[in-house]
Each structure stands twice: as C-alpha cells, then as structure tokens.
Amino acid sequence: MVESSLRKKASFSCDRCKQKKRRCVREGGGNISVSLDVAQACTECIKSNSICHTSLINRKQYASRYKCQLIGNSNISSDKTGPIKSILLQTLKKLVPNIQLESDADVIGLAKAVGVNVDGIVQQKLATQSFLVDSLGHVDIQQEQIVKDDNGDPRLLGSLGTPAIHNNILELIQKPRNPEFRSEAASNPLESPQGSLSSNFSISGLIDKAKAVRYADIFFENVNSVFICVCRSEYEELVQKLWQGETLSSIQSFLVLLVWLLGKLYIIEQELDTDDRLMSIYKTFRDHIVGQISVKCSIIGIRVLVLIAIVSESVEERDLACNLFKIAAVQATSVGIHRDVFHQEVPRLQKEYSELWWTIFNNEVRLSNIMGRSSSIDLDDVTISANFKAHQLKSNVCFYESSKLHQILYQFLKFKACNLQNSLILSSPDAIENAVQLRQKLLTWRRSLPENLGDIFNSKLTELSYPQIFLHLEYHYCYINVGVPFLLLILRAVNSGKTVQISKDDPILQLAVSSINCSKQLYNIVEYEFENKLFNGSVHTDLYILYHGVLVLTIASILLKSDKCGNIVDTELLDRTFGISFDKLWEVLGKIRKLNDNLKAHCFGSATMAWNLIDSLLHDLDGFINKECDDWGSMLQIDQNFYDPLSMFNISTDGFLEFLSTQANEGFDFRVADVVR
C-alpha cells in the first residue's frame, strides 16, 4: 500500500463507476469513506472483483490486493520465477557491487539512487496499456490499435506480427554461422513494389521523353493540386529508372502511365482517338491492375486506385469512380494511414499520407452524395489532420479548407440517411433543426476562410489558382444539398392545392432560398472561369456541379410560374426580401444556356455528358414554360423529369402536405431564432 503522504488525488471517478453514472467511493483507514483516492479500490469494483482504474494518463488507480491476482493469473509458478529473479539480482549486483538487494523495494531504491525516474517509467508504461479482468478472472492487457515497431512500420497486425519480434526469434533459433538462412522480415510490404503483371506490359518507348515531361508537369500543376495523391519525388524516381532501362513492376508502370494520361486528358479539347496508345493500354490493363491491387494492400497501390478513379470520372464512369474510392478508403484504413501515429516521426511521410487520406475522404464523400449512397468511412476513427502549418502554400490551405468542408458534407450524408427516408421525419422540428445547424456550419466555414481565399472575383488573375475556385464551387454545391430537399417539399405543397402561407422567417423557406441563391452563384463562378480562360472540361467536374445548380433553378422556375405558388409562398415578399422571382430566374437560365453553348468545344467525357444534360433540360423547360396550358402537370410528371434513383433529389415528401395542413402555431411556429443559438 502506498503511504498516505505519497498518495495523489484523481480528478475523475473510475471507469466502471463513470460508465454506470454512480458515485465512486473508497474505504479509507478507520472505515472512513473517501472519494477519488488513487491508492484504494472503490467499493463497487471490490464487489465485482474488478480492477479499479481510470483511462486518463497518469491517473490509473490500482489496489495492491490485485497484484497477487495478476501474478496468479499469469500461470507462472514461483519455482519457475525463482531462477529469473536470481539472474536479475546477480546482474544488478555486478552493476553496483556494494548494494544489498533482498527485496523488490531494494531494487526500486537502487533505481532511484542512480537517478532513474521510476514513477515516470511506470506511468509511461501504464499509459499504453489497459488492464481488464473478465468474468473468469483472466487479465487482458489491451495494446494500442496500431503497434509501432522499431524495425518496421506501424501495422494493424498485433505485437506478434511485427518484424522486430520475427528478427528476435531468428536471432534466438539461428546460429551466426548460417547467415544465409536469415529472413528479410524487416522489409516493409506497404512500400515494396508488387510483382509484374505480364511480360508484355511495358510503357518503355510508349511516348517520347519530351511529351512525358510535359504531361507530368501539367498533371502535377493542375490535377495533383486538387487530387493530391502522388508524390512527385516518387514519380521522378520511377521515371528515372524507366529512362535508364530498369524494369518496373506492373503497379509502378501503371502509376507512371496514369500520370501521363491525366496530363494529356487535361489539355485535350476533343474526344481521344480510338487508337490513342495511352488510353488503349489503360483500358486493356485497368481491370487486371485493380484486381491485383485489391488482393494486396500497398501505398503505391492506393495511389493507383485514386488515379484510376479520377480517370474513370472524367470518361463517364462515375459509378466506377465511386466504387474505386470506396475500395481505396477501405485499404487506407486497413493500412492505417488515417491515424496520426503512422510515420509520425517522419514529417514528410506524415504529410504525404495525410494528403493521400484526405483526398480519398473528400472524393469518397462527394461521390457517395452524388450517387445517393452512404459513406463507408468512419470519421470518428480518423485522427490524422490535414493541416500542416509548415507548408502554408495556397494550395495546401485550400486542401485543408476543402477537407473541413467535406466533413460537413459527411454530416449531411448522415442527416440524409436518418431523415430523408420519410417526409414526416423530414418535416419534424428535429430534422429541420439539424438542417439549419448544417447550414450554420457552412456559414461559419465560409466566414472563417483566410482573407486571400474569400473572394475569387476581385482577386488578381496572377494570384488566383484553380484549387481556390474549386473550393468555392464545392461550398455552394454543399449548400445546395442541404437546401434542395426543402425546396422540393414546397413544390409538392404548391401542387397539392392547399393554402398555407410560409412566412419569411421559417427555416424551411430560408433553406430553400439558400439552394436557389447558391445555384445562381455556381453560374457566376463557371462563367468567370470561362471568361478568364480557366475552365477545364476534361478532368475537372465544374460543369457537372453547375448541372446540379440548373436542376435547382429549373425546379424553382416551375414553382414560381405556377398560379398555385401564392397559396404557399408570398411571391412578392420573396422578390422583395430575397431577390427571387420567375423573371429573374428565367434570365439566369438564359445566361446559363448561352454559357453552355460556348463551353461545348471545351468539353470531353463526363463534361460532354453534363453539357448534354444541361442543354436538353433547358430546351425542354423552355417548351414547358411557354406552352399555353393551365395544367402544370402532376407531381408524377415532375418526378419523372427531375428524379433519378441515384440522384440527391431522390426523397419522399408526401407526408409534408399533412404537416402544412396544421395550424400555424402548431407547425410553422418554429423559427430560425429557435434553432440557431
């Protein structure tokens, strides 16, 4: 037992009492009840025969009576531990010949005499372990999830899977005179190149060196600045080996090929020829490479998965791109690059792996939202940051802010999974409150942007970068996602024929208005790109993001053109307060149609598909608005035109009519001031 003068008071109850929300009481000397005594076990833990401790560092609480239990459960008899103690005592006597060692206390006294901080060592050791006793009385010592090994890299393999343990066993069982049998267990399979795919897979001589350098420069300047997934020094090392005639593995060769291909795709303004060699080899070996990467995790394999996903999204295979980012996310978490302990002793590697992880996260969340799916990532398990203060380039700051923005979009996916399956749930105060809180988080994010990133229209072109432009596109796209479900609710209410006025202060109206205004802002950004020759319609997804804005403006136009709109929304108040009217929206749609015509020559792949969608939608809307007919169509017709099973607009809203039919003091007496505190 620790002397009372040496005891320290803990600041919290033990874990078991804290979990059961009860007072943690310990019995002191003379049957005096005391609380928060680190030396005594609490009464509840004594009753349950459990170790009394708290998980906070330097505040673990142990009772001396359990020391015997730990020794008893170790299944090591005293006759076996005797020789070990004897050897340890003899070793210590050799170090300090004049010391008398007859007990454990003498050993601790020796350590203190030579200046060893025993308490610090013990606390540091206990900080990495958690002692639990199960119902059978067995002691379970839980290690950290990622084991850091001196002879290798962090793994999720457990202590027996680390290279150091393997090497120690080899040193024990192998004789020094047989070094040829020693295994190379300390090598890192995560960084090692994978085996060759086939003898005829080679990119040597595929393109000349001048084109390779040009494509690589374009890739790292324009593509890798947004999708940060390839380390340039690693690429240069691979290319140097290629020019020297060395053989690269299939994964290494495919990474170099993808860098060239994306560099070429970025500058192309028409569809690739069918005999294009880069695209031909990519299509031939892509599926085999993906299969090879899927069965064996490696860092370079994860990089290749990300690059293939980028190419897939640019050539009208967005569903495949979403699946590949999900596979990359699973492999990245299994390797452990989402944890801050992974290579934290090497800042360069930590920065590279952090950028790779957050690129995967941002795009997995973005594509999951587009495809109407849930994210496969557990954000609570992510501990690595995207912020590196030592690398405050504008592209790095944009990347960090983009990661924060996609964490809000990740929360929206959680919100959508819980609330958009049923319109009654969507109409509930809790759902509306959650949506308004997401809107408030987006506003807070926007206001916290650095001054040099806040305004793209008044920035000098020489100082403006595409990551900054794309950051604002993503922001308005996230805003649309939060507000458009409520715009659709109002649309269905208008077509119901009911008469229920929505005031300007209602959060439902403000969320719908936000989606409309952000859709108009998407047009302003894309037009600014085109006028200043910053638009890219091959690799980047700007036009596809604008297409979602056109969808929102189309729905809003149908809503405002209907004679029934006044039954739900005061259109004059909407124009006077928010600057939204049918004529103003129709003018914006006309500008978008003109811009879309100008962008046709600059589109390729997925951008061409987005161009066709915008063109056909605006053409059909023009005929729909101009036809002389009082019947604006049933909701089923609107669903067929604007709903898709994989769209972000795929929600059920029938129950909203019942919600609108309630009295104002029962339903819409729920103001923004009540939820934004």
From TrEMBL:
Q: Where in the cell is it found?
A: Nucleus
Record bears the keyword Nucleus = yes
Q: Provide an example Pfam family for this protein.
A: Fungal_trans
Q: Which InterPro entries match?
A: AtrR-like, XnlR_reg_dom, Zn2-C6_fun-type_DNA-bd_sf, Zn2Cys6_DnaBD
Keyword annotations from UniProtKB, A to Z: DNA-binding, Metal-binding, Nucleus
Q: Which biological process, per GO, is one annotated for this protein?
A: DNA-templated transcription
Could you give a GO molecular-function term held by this entry?
zinc ion binding
Zn(2)-C6 fungal-type domain mapped to chain residues? 8-63
- What PANTHER family does the database record attribute to this sequence? HALOTOLERANCE PROTEIN 9-RELATED, TRANSCRIPTION FACTOR PDR1
Q: What is this protein called?
A: Zn(2)-C6 fungal-type domain-containing protein
